[in-house]
Specification:
heterodimer; A: alpha/beta; Rossmann fold; four-stranded parallel β-sheet; B: alpha/beta; three-stranded antiparallel β-sheet
């Protein structure tokens, strides 16, 4: 992306945890379709959203991310039955922790999608990037 | 096991305000089981504390440790080297663990990171309920194995009271009436005759906390 005088100077760093059964194939599809993505995205492939511990979410923010997205399977569609629900529960705990320390909970989000949701995957990332740009850099990053 | 809940963040940030480098110590025993002070919670709280302080421009270095059982001297002393490197310690073990550190590290301020709440049972995943008040003289053999000291709001030894309604307690309506539970249990065991036996008043001043610090001595175990 070419930076002009009026272009925003802050590219939010987003960590995208992608479930191997949905988020990752969707990312793959987005790549095949050559969809426009935010510049500063790091994909972390996980075997199931249930693998994502609460600490991963906080550590991502602490180590420099401005926002974190979890791409998980639709509810009741988890190959391991409740991995996506576990991720949702852990996200809600992380939200409570962010509230306690005065960080915006919008920095952490879960998105449920399917293998063929490449377009949605890209759209959600774009929207998240815009939202984080408005929020500004993560003040908790070390 | 001992149950605990994390202290409010503002409270911890307030007492940590003068420090720049602290140790956050959990415990691998009871508080791990109730998800209040185990290794995972140490990681989460340490990360949250670092970010909270970073946000206000006062960087806080937080070292992390989780001894197997903080209330045992052997394990608590494993922290000695790390304690020397920090200005203060936050312990998210129970109150016993905190005081074990206090005893062994007299020159370092030790702060509690959890509120030790009760002795309880895991009723379901994420749900714990009080079961014992360590009253010092167990009456479970007389009450069908259900404790009226811990589970009856009025600690009645000969219940139920007039406030028991449809099996629920009048003080805390969502709670089961302990004496209803005792009655149902004794009935199921065919031991309802136990209800007719009067349980004498407990000697709170002799066997319980009211007589001051309690202590157990086993001379045969002395080294």
């Amino acid at each position: 992306m070419e930076r002009g005088v009026n272009m925003p100077t802050f590219d939010p760093k987003i960590i995208a945890f992608c479930c191997d059964q949905s988020g990752y194939p969707a990312a793959d599809m987005a790549g095949s379709l050559k969809l426009t993505l935010p510049e500063n995205v790091e994909i972390v492939r996980v075997p199931c959203a249930g693998r994502i511990e609460t600490i991963y979410l906080l550590k991502a923010l602490e180590m420099g991310a401005d926002g974190v997205l979890i791409f998980a399977c639709y509810e009741e569609n988890c190959q391991f039955l409740r991995g996506n629900l576990r991720a949702k529960g852990r996200l809600s705990y992380a939200h409570r922790m962010l509230e306690k320390i005065g960080l915006e909970k919008e920095r952490l989000e879960i998105c449920h999608l399917a293998t063929n949701s490449g377009v949605r995957w890209a759209e959600v990332l774009q929207r998240k990037s815009e939202q984080l740009r408005k929020l500004g850099p993560n003040p908790g990053k070390i | 096991m001992i149950k605990a809940e994390q202290k409010p963040m503002e409270e911890m940030l307030k007492y940590l305000d003068p420090y720049n480098k602290v140790l956050l110590s959990g415990c691998g025993a009871c508080v791990t089981v109730c998800h209040a002070g185990g290794e995972k919670e140490v990681g989460l709280l340490a990360s949250a504390l670092r970010m909270a302080r970073q946000k206000i421009g006062k960087k806080l270095e937080v070292l992390e440790a989780t001894p197997t059982r903080q209330c045992e001297p052997e394990f608590a002393l494993e922290l000695a080297e790390t304690v020397e490197k920090v200005e203060a310690v936050v312990s998210i073990a129970c109150g016993v663990g905190v005081q074990t550190l206090v005893r062994h590290f007299p020159k370092t301020p030790i702060y509690p990171g959890v509120n030790t709440t009760f002795l309880g049972e895991t009723v379901a995943q994420g749900l714990w309920e009080e079961r014992c008040q360590a009253c010092g003289n167990c009456v479970l053999e007389k009450t069908g194995g259900i404790c009226p000291i811990a589970r009856c709001a009025k600690q009645l030894l000969n219940g139920p009271c007039g406030g028991s309604s449809k099996g629920k307690c009048e003080i805390k309506r969502e709670a089961d009436c302990a004496w209803q539970l005792i009655y149902d249990r004794l009935k199921a065991l065919n031991q309802l005759y136990q209800m007719e036996q009067i349980i004498p008043a407990k000697r709170w001043g002799v066997e319980s906390r009211d007589s001051g610090l309690r202590r157990i001595v086993r001379e045969d175990l002395n080294l």
